[in-house]
Amino acid sequence: MERAGGRDGGKVAILFAQFAPYHVDRIAAAAERLAGRAEVIGIEVADSSATYGWERAGGVAGARKVTLFPEQRYEDIGSAVKLRRALRTLQEANTVFVGIPYSESWIMALTAVLRLRGCRVILMTESKADDFPRKAWLEMLKRAVLAPYDCALVGGERQAHYIRHLGFRTRPVLEGYDTIGNERVRALVTGKRQPQWRERPFLYVGRFVEKKNLAVLLEAFALYRKGAGPDARRLVMAGDGPLGGELQNLAKRLGVAKSIDWPGFLGAAGVAEAMHDALALSLVSTTEQWGLVLNEAAALGLPVIVSPNVGACDRLVRDGETGRIVATTDPTAIANAMRNLAKSEAQWVAMRAASLAISEAGDVRHFADAVEKLIAPTKTAS
After folding, report:
1. Considering the entire predicted model, what is its pTM?
2. Are strands 235-238 and 260-261 parallel, antiparallel or unpaired?
3. Residues 40-76: pLDDT tens digits?
4. Alpha-carbon gap, residue 290 to 282, rounded angstroms
5. Is 3 among the domain residues?
6. CB neighbours (10 Å) of residue 59?
7. Domain containing 236: what range?
8. CATH code at 211?
9. Does 132 lie in the same domain as 110?
10. Residue 87 and residue 211 in one domain
């Protein structure tokens, strides 16, 4: 493993459960920004999990990469074992950014011990108040759990508001957590042929789980197909999960099974190619803390159909300009948005340009900005 960085900021560790390409984007961006001032160490607990089928990450440019448990699944490792190895790995760190849910028992213990060691601990979170019904007693408990953290790095405005409510009113809270490397995503489809506008399908990318509201999306697609007639677009449902069979059966009952493609889980390159070829991305979740597929869509100039529950809406969607924001549980509203996006190529081209323009707001540069402000505030980039 290559050692990078300098001495002024000491050793800065960035901890995640498992690396996806966008985690690598953030660590590499932080390492580039802090080059000569701090050594950045990117730490993943495991390189696979039961939840996400991401490809195993390679190296991280400019940073030292550590996998605590190579060739193991995150869920198969005991909390005490994770804690011991993490503490041993982090013993020389001056600052630790924690991107694993603070509700996990071993993370509670880890952050408490790190503070006792005199280490600066920074929370990374995308939770917002409207994700779930909140109970006052549980919110008070969260405040106690979050006491070891010095400051927080969050996705956007709603996330910042919520974390301040949880006791960070006098602690620094910066935005820029939920970002990706726009240039990395664009490079995945460089030189790829642009399909004809009428060939472009609607697209969903993600897990097949309850919160994604996919039954309503399929109902909406059936209504859209009924109204659009022979000019109706196809729908690509890219992903996997426990509801896969149920959703395919629903598509048959709705009479749209032959109009839907189910390519399964797609890696980063496959997602970029699917977005490159699509008319619009649909994400109408009932609960969605952020939704990084919106960052990827914006990076590629893909208009979107989203629910207001999606956290990334605040930063990356302008209703009527980059796509449509629709009522979460209203199939008719979603179907109307589909019809609207499919009716005019000129309108779609304008939305595509607006999406590309707003994509900078979701770029990893903002993560690097926030890290720099927290680690080397006197040298923050403008």
Report:
1. 0.94
2. parallel
3. 999 999 999 998 888 898 899 999 999 999 999 999 9
4. 14
5. no
6. 13
7. 184-362
8. 3.40.50.2000
9. yes
10. no
